[in-house]
Design a protein that fits this description.
The complex is a heterotrimer. By secondary structure, chain A is mainly alpha-helical. Chain A has helices at 3-34, 41-58, 63-86, 94-116, 143-164, 166-176, 178-183, 188-213, 223-236, 241-261, 269-283; strands spanning 121-122, 132-135, 138-141, 216-217. Chain A has one domain (3-283): ABC transporter involved in vitamin B12 uptake, BtuC (Orthogonal Bundle). Chain A is built from 11 helices and 4 strands. In chain A, helix 1 runs antiparallel to helix 10 (241-261). The longest helix of chain A has 32 residues, at 3-34. Chain A starts with a helix and ends in a 14-residue tail after the last helix. Chain B is of the alpha/beta class. Chain B has 2 domains: 35-149 and 289-366, Response regulator (Rossmann fold, 3-Layer(aba) Sandwich); 152-282, Rossmann fold. Helix content of chain B is 44%, strand content 19%. Chain B has helices spanning 2-24, 49-65, 85-97, 110-123, 151-165, 180-197, 217-224, 237-249, 265-271, 292-305, 311-330, 335-343, and strands at residues 35-42, 68-69, 72-80, 103-105, 127-129, 144-146, 171-176, 203-209, 230-232, 256-258, 279-282, 348-350, 353-355, 367-373, 376-383. In chain B, strands 8-7-9-10-11-14-15 form a 7-stranded mixed sheet, with helices on both faces. In chain B, strands 2-3-1-4-5-6 form a 6-stranded mixed sheet, with helices on both faces. Chain C has one domain (15-257). Chain C has helices at 2-10, 16-35, 38-63, 71-86, 89-95, 103-106, 112-134, 139-159, 161-164, 179-198, 200-210, 212-217, 222-248, 258-271, 276-292, 313-329, and strands at residues 300-301, 306-307. Chain C is globular and about 55 Å long. In chain C, helix 3 crosses helix 14 (258-271). Chain C is 72% helix and 1% strand. Classes of the chains: A mainly alpha, B alpha/beta, C mainly alpha.
């Protein structure tokens, strides 16, 4: 392939990678504190996209307001999800909570089918973003560059919150050692709620970006990306935010480059994520940037 | 614990007797009662939801226009097959065994129709497909009919257009390997194209994707590097719209052609500006009404839905009318009699044209070629078989 | 304390509850087989298949405490094995119109029972191969890893055109599966499970579930037992998959997604984790209700009022039920029979 084509593939890969990274962060934050795989996270991402659609199409607010509003509402949905499906089970066995998570995911998917309808909807792309630009012979849609920029911006904001605020410190404490942090007087409920809100907010932004890049909204659109993003988080080291970002990029780039260099294996694209997962789990289960945790008897 | 078990076992026993009783008493709607039930199985949710919903609109309109036959009321029993083959099989089973329908309409999507094929054959209830175009739907199945043309024809139509109108010498194919429709149509296009150009190697690239995929950038880049004159990419409207958009985003200006699944409002809304100039084959156009029934249908549809009619609604309308016509000719609502009458359908005046069902149960019809211009579907030409 | 121990010794393997259940089921199956119409018989057939599935999930999740989400994958292996082996050569040609089937399978046509057993064995082999590396992982990772394998299997089946006919799926699978077959398998599963659990293997499984570290220090070979449990469970899932294939007559890789596993999880949770009798009953109830509640998806004609159908409503109700059961029961979810 020519250099031009390679650059095109690279740009696409980075774009997809940042989308995955945005969603993976939500998974890793929740897992870090609660040791819970929030299966419903992918469907939160879907909700974010749909809410934005309705905000833009049915009200006259400008797109940036709609984006922010929809993301905030989705954050609230995540907050509610935690209160309804996970909080009552906080002291129960892991398997129980996992089943609740799967149930929540299914509920959201089918609820979306019932309420939004099974027919796909076209995501309203703000015209500013829908421009094709030409860089040295490579034609790319502007959105491909906007996504990583926004992603990194949000990541910077998140890093600030986590490392420079008291809430962030509490989050880190809870994820390092839950019981001790609790004993130290941290308001666990509040921190967990904030975690879910932030994670869902980010997923919603991811959903909006995804809707702009792939403007077809369907109720089940969050299913496969959700699983893949969890895998991204695991690959990078679950519980570790930089790990989630790294994992997201590895997965996004890997997928695109796989199909680019080995077009005969296009069909195996989805399996790529799972194969990577298995390899990581067998070789370095704590992930690329994760730390080993010993189980105390 | 024992009491709870006892209660549960009681529930179980109750359930099984309920089911048995329930199942046995569903005698309404058979050939002798005063309601004639026609089953409809279409995808109302899932990847093909738009197609199914559009078709059902046409069927329901037809039911309103002609709600009675042989002095009895005609009742539609509509079941969603969720764009899923297993559900399609279950839906048809349920329609036949539980609802005792005398005929079935459906389904949008050749794979879904084929999933039901064995069942209607085994249970001897005739089925009429509105828009499934893969030949295997009716092949070797005396109980399956359709009111639309089939892919061997549709493939040649588009190949002809590519070679004669666009002057294409090479082509690339991007197919959805999860859909019999896409795979079949691509194959017929390929055969026709090779024959027309006389060049065995005229298909310079082939790529594939799965239903539900959203990113086609890699496939497009690879296909474009082979420099085809034209790309043939039949597939669901959603995936196709995304595919074309991504192609244009990457600066790929090669004309992209498709098949009848593109005719849906979502294709336009999702594709946006990118799908300008896309050309595809379909069954019907409001701009060139073929028969006086077409005019009538267009008027009624506009009145009921306040928008212009599409091919799938028109085919749905015709499927219903064809069945009622068969019932009238047979003089009875017995499924076998309906089947026999259906196989003799000739020159039936439908909204989509004159329908004659050949020995396979397929309709010999003309194809319409449409193009996307200024954000709307515009009629280009008619191709006769 | 000693008295309790003696009491346990004296217990028969098949306790009264299970025997009553088996008896009632036997009668019910015979009645349905002879008197019910086709639609009900289809449901009854499916119920039998889901009983086997529910029990196989119980074995790995309920009794051994390993959260595996890979069931759909093993069902796929069983289903495809049986399908490929039983479809007649003529129908095979019709199916594989895009790319012909691999030569060594082209003329193969087996009868039902050998094909079914082969399906189970292949699934078990894969269970063993997958289990060996994966079962070392803890809870959540195991869940995702097994899910990953199930998805890999599905994707592989979607792409190996000449072996499985890829995404086009297989049609014209001879419909061997009857109520008799599914329920014979179901009964065998029930009896097998009961004997397994009450025996020493079963006690080892339960010990592993209760406290892995304690079990290990007691000398139980964790790994060997985990792999065994996983292999047995896969065998059962494979057979159930084969029954499913010959019941539906048509399969394709898209059937075997996580949604399928979700159904089985629902059955297991409703029946009570670790509860064999409960699982059997919940399998029947869930499967039957899935069909009965179909009306939620389509229009309801109450004579004086017509409520329009809402596609998807069925699954919404189901997921709500699952979550309610999980949240309300929470710890009681784990109580044993």
């Amino acid at each position: 392939m020519t250099l031009v084509e390679f650059m095109q593939h690279l740009a696409n890969g980075v774009s997809l990678g940042s989308l995955y990274a945005l969603i993976a962060i939500g998974y890793t934050m929740v897992y870090g504190i609660l040791r819970l795989i929030n299966f419903a996270h992918g469907d939160i991402f879907m909700l974010g996209a749909y809410l934005t659609y309705y905000a833009i199409v049915f009200t006259s607010m400008p797109w940036y307001v709609a984006f922010a509003l929809a993301a905030a509402i989705t954050g609230l949905v995540g907050f509610l999800l935690e209160k309804i499906a996970y909080k009552p089970l906080r002291d129960a066995q892991r398997i129980t909570v996992l089943i609740s998570a799967i149930g929540a995911s299914f509920f959201l998917q089918n609820f979306a089918t019932v309420v939004f309808g099974g027919r796909p909807k076209a995501f309203p792309i703000p015209s500013i973003m829908n421009k094709i630009i030409n860089i040295g012979g490579v034609s790319i849609n502007l959105i491909t560059f906007i996504i990583p920029v926004i992603g990194l911006g949000l990541l910077a904001g998140l890093t600030y919150i986590i490392y420079k605020t008291k809430t962030g410190m509490a989050m880190r404490a809870l994820s390092k050692d839950y019981d001790t942090a609790r004993l130290m007087g941290i308001n666990v409920d509040r921190i967990i709620s904030i975690t879910f809100f932030i994670g869902s907010f980010l997923a919603a932004v991811g959903g909006i970006m995804w809707g702009i890049k792939y403007p077809q909204l369907m109720p089940l659109m969050g299913s496969m990306p959700g699983i893949k993003c969890f895998i991204a988080a695991v690959i990078g080291g679950i519980g570790n935010i930089s790990g989630a970002v790294l994992g997201g990029f590895i997965l996004g780039l890997g997928e695109i480059l796989l199909v680019a260099f080995l077009p005969g294996l296009t069909g195996y694209r989805d399996a790529f994520a799972f194969i990577l997962l298995i390899i990581i789990l067998l070789v370095k289960p704590t992930g690329l940037l994760g730390e080993k945790v010993t189980e105390k008897v | 614990m024992k009491r709870k078990m006892g209660v549960l076992i009681l529930v179980l026993a109750l359930l099984s007797s309920l089911l048995t009783a329930c199942g046995g008493s569903e005698e309404t709607g058979g050939a002798d009662s005063d309601v004639i039930k026609i089953g409809v199985f279409e995808p109302m949710t899932g990847a093909s939801a738009a197609g199914g919903q559009m078709t059902v609109e046409g069927i329901e309109l037809a039911n309103e226009v002609k709600p009675e036959v042989l002095g009895k009321k005609v009742e539609l029993v509509i079941v969603d097959n969720k764009s899923d083959k297993v559900e399609a099989a279950n839906a048809v089973s349920s329609l036949i065994d539980k609802d005792n329908v005398v005929a079935i309409i459906g389904s949008y999507g050749s794979s879904l129709s084929m999933a039901a094929g064995d069942i209607v054959k085994e249970k001897r209830v005739p089925a009429v497909g509105c828009s499934p175009t893969n030949p295997l739907v009716t092949l070797n199945n005396d109980y399956y009919f359709r009111v639309c043309f089939i892919d061997p024809f549709q493939g040649t139509v588009m190949a002809n257009y590519a070679v004669n109108e666009l002057g294409a010498k090479t082509a690339a194919i991007i197919q959805d390997v999860t859909q019999d429709y896409s795979v079949g149509l691509s194959k017929y296009f390929e055969d026709a194209f090779k024959e027309l150009t006389g060049d065995e190697n005229s298909i310079v690239a082939k790529a594939s994707y799965n239903t539900g995929d959203q990113d086609f950038t890699a496939q497009l880049t690879n296909v474009a590097s082979a420099n085809p004159d034209v790309i043939f990419a039949p597939g669901n409207y959603g995936e196709s719209a995304l595919l074309i958009k991504q192609a244009r985003d990457q600066g790929i200006d090669i004309p992209i052609l498709g098949g009848d699944t593109w005719e849906s409002p979502e294709f336009l809304s999702i594709g946006g500006d990118a799908v300008e100039g896309a050309v595809f084959s379909t069954h019907f156009t409001a701009e060139a009404p073929v028969t006086e029934v077409s005019d009538e249908f267009l008027k009624l549809y506009e009145e009921k839905f306040s928008k212009q009619a599409n091919a799938f609604a028109a085919l749905g309308y015709d499927a219903y009318m064809v069945i009622l016509d068969a019932i009238e000719r047979a003089g009875s609502a017995d499924p076998e009699a309906i089947r026999d009458a259906l196989s003799e359908t000739a020159d039936f005046v439908g909204a989509t044209g004159y329908i004659t069902l050949d020995e396979n149960g397929d309709a010999v019809k003309s194809a319409i070629i449409k193009k996307v211009e200024n954000g709307d579907f515009v009629y280009l030409t008619t191709v006769n078989p | 304390m000693a008295e309790d121990r003696l009491k346990v010794e004296k217990e028969r393997i098949l306790d009264r509850n299970t025997l009553i259940l088996l008896g009632v089921l036997l009668v019910a199956v015979v009645v349905v087989d002879f008197f019910a119409n086709d639609h009900v018989r289809t449901i009854a057939n499916l119920c039998g298949i889901y009983v086997t599935l529910g029990l196989s999930m119980q074995l790995i999740n309920g009794f051994t405490g390993l959260f595996s989400l890979g069931h759909a994958g093993f069902m796929a292996i069983g289903a495809y094995t049986v399908a490929i082996l039983t479809i007649s050569p003529a129908n095979k040609e019709m199916n594989y119109f895009l790319e012909p089937i691999v030569p060594f399978l082209a003329d193969v046509e087996w009868s039902f029972l050998p094909a079914l057993i082969m399906g189970g064995i292949l699934a078990a082999i894969f269970g063993f191969l997958i289990g060996a590396p994966v079962l070392r992982l803890t809870d959540d990772y195991l869940a995702i890893a097994t899910l990953g394998f199930a998805e890999i299997i599905r994707v592989v089946f979607t792409n190996t055109q000449s072996l499985t006919n890829g995404a086009l799926g297989l049609k014209a699978i001879p419909k061997f599966s009857t109520i008799l077959w599914s329920w014979i398998v179901a009964f065998l599963s029930i009896v097998f499970m009961v004997y397994l659990i009450r025996g020493s293997y079963g006690k080892a499984f339960i010990a592993i579930k209760e406290d892995e570290i304690a079990a290990r220090s007691m000398g139980i070979n964790l790994f060997k037992h985990k792999v065994m449990s996983f292999t047995f469970s896969s065998f059962m899932a494979g057979i159930a998959g084969g029954l499913m294939a010959t019941h539906l007559g048509t399969i394709d890789p898209n059937m075997f997604r996580i949604a399928l596993t979700f159904n089985i999880i629902l059955i297991m949770v409703l029946g009570g984790i670790g509860n064999i009798n409960g699982t059997v009953i919940s399998a029947i109830i869930v499967t039957a209700f899935m069909e009965i509640l179909r009306f939620l998806d389509s229009s309801i004609d109450l004579g004086f009022i017509k409520l329009p159908g809402i596609p998807g409503m069925r699954m919404v109700i189901f997921s709500i039920i699952l979550m309610l059961v999980v949240i309300v029961r929470k710890d009681r979810l784990l109580k044993e029979n």
